Amino acid sequence: MTDYGSLLARFCLSLVFLWSGITKLRDPVGGTAEVAALGLPMPQVFLALTILCQIAGGLMVLLGFRVRLGALVLLSFTVVATLLGHRVAGLTGAARQQQMTTSLEHLAIVGGFLLLIVHGAGALSIDALLN
């Protein structure tokens, strides 16, 4: 059960990043607008880095290939994206509640990546095959 549970957890953690990265890759205009809305300079460069992090990190986690590195990449990306995109300072009411809820959901994702970093990918992974 543990082996399949680890595989399912990796699938769940990676899916949102793979989906987001592929969506941005297929719609670079929308992806650039999303990055530009954060006020970052050179939105095309940050979009390319975002797509790279999301797809490469997502595949690493999903396949269990150098899973600790992939989890660290996505953990770091999640923390930075949350700090940039889900600011609660200055918000009140429903807007504050929505941003706070999203930030806490992202914290749960970070917790999942921390577990992968500590415990590794499990037996059903490329890492296990290579060791």
Describe this structure in words.
- With about 130 residues, the chain is mainly α.
- It has one domain (about 1-130).
- About 80% of the residues lie in helices and about 0% in strands.
- The protein is built from six helices and no strands.
- The chain has helices spanning about 1-25, 30-35, 45-65, 65-85, 95-120, 125-130.
- α1 (about 1-25) crosses α2, α2 (about 30-35) packs across α3 and α4 packs antiparallel against α5.
- It is globular and about 45 Å long.
- The mean pLDDT is about 95.
Fill in the keyword field for this structure.
131 residues, mainly alpha
How do the helices and strands line up, and which of them pair or pack?
Layout: H1 2-26, H2 28-36, H3 43-63, H4 67-85, H5 93-119, H6 126-130
